[in-house]
Amino acid sequence: MRFFVLILLFVNSSVLLGQYRFSGEVSLENAGNSIYLSVVEDYRKASRVYLDQIVQQGTVDSLGHFSFSGDNLSDQNRIYRIHLDGCSDNSGGNHFLGQCNNSKSVLFISNNKDTLNFPTSFEDQSLCTITSTNPKSGLLLEIEELKEHMAYDFAEYPSEANHKLNLEKWFKTLHSFGEKANEPLGELYIYDFLSDKSNETFRFYLEDLTKNNYYEDLSKRLLVDYPNTTFAQQYQAEIATDRELANFGKPQSSKWNRTIIALLAVSVLGNVVFFLGKKRKSGTSHLLEKLTPQEQKIAHLILENKTNKEIASELFVSVSTIKTHINNLYKKLDVASRDEMSVLFKK
Hints:
Blueprint: H1 2-11, H2 13-17, E1 20-25, E2 34-40, E3 54-59, E4 65-70, E5 78-84, E6 104-110, E7 115-118, E8 131-132, H3 139-156, H4 160-181, H5 184-194, H6 202-209, H7 214-225, H8 230-247, H9 254-288, H10 293-303, H11 308-315, H12 319-333, H13 338-346
Parallel strand pairs: 1-7
Antiparallel strand pairs: 1-4, 2-3, 2-5, 5-6, 7-8
Helix pairs in contact: 3-4, 4-5, 7-8, 10-12, 11-12
């Protein structure tokens, strides 16, 4: 009896220790190709594969099957990627950057205790269906479907009025979906899309950030579910910075008013100095207009107390050429020496 109990403990040790197992099936044409498991700690790096994200490397077998297992993942949910490398030449690093058209990947949420399977779907499509012991695993695929519907809405009615209405609609739809899913990682995935500076959504996001409590509420959910994580800290820093950007030029407090008054005072003082300097220079500006561009350069260098040799070196000409230019500009300015020229331009 004791021996039987030990056997049961050994068989179930992987469950007790909390091991993961991710397996799946792809088309047979991928047999022998490399496949990778990566972790995405930085939600801003979810759009493509990075070498420093890779956790494991495997190979698709002759039947199109692959699997990853172990106990080296986080016990908390994280975003992971399985990336099938279909590049014909994988000796370089470009295929890791998502530049190979034959590569496929899928993002999902999981942890160290999960068992996942990626079966091929209809029409032999791979890495687009997930069955999992974790109910949150397929959340990112659902978000991708919503983003496709959003893109369709914008394409169907491209007018400016519809653009504004669609932004309001889809921000609300995506935020609501994220909250109901009860998984801040999914909300971060949505946030990454809506706040991407390269997307048309960015300007509306800045406006929404100043009046919508959603972003602060998400920050609280992250601190509760994922305390002391780099991505939670990253999110807090980003919304703080973006909020300042959104409020730039819109002072709403006495502190801002004092700052604006001080800036205006500095601006007025700067303008006074500028116009006084302009008035002072206007008396000599017409003198420079008498000179050729090369003579103007030489005149400026003379006023900087450069010697003929230094001027010649700087302008890449001979000293005799400089002397000729100086004689000409002396005649045009009606002066006989460097000192007289200096006095002339200081008036």
